[in-house]
Amino acid sequence: MNGRRSADECSSSIFCAAADLPLLHRDPFDRVLVATAMERGLVLLTSDRVIPTYPGVRVIW
């Protein structure tokens, strides 16, 4: 294996994590972005005022 994940593997874990997030944000795509950043240890660059209220998400802006 080359270290890459399949799309199905990434999608299922991230979508499950997004579904488990507190309902702070109404936009489901933003919840997927938050879950992706949290699962992969990424920092989000956003001016959204709700996203930084998620516990454990790192945001710049």
How is this structure best described in words?
The chain has 61 residues and is mostly helical. It has one domain (7-60). Helix content is 44%, strand content 10%. The chain contains 2 helices and 2 strands, in the order ααββ. Strands 1-2 form a two-stranded parallel ribbon. The longest helix has 14 residues, at 7-20. The chain is globular, with a radius of gyration of 12 Å. The protein starts with 6 loop residues before the first helix and ends with a strand. 15% of the residues are buried.
Question: How does the SSE layout of this entry go?
Answer:
Layout: H1 7-20, H2 28-40, E1 43-45, E2 58-60
Parallel strand pairs: 1-2
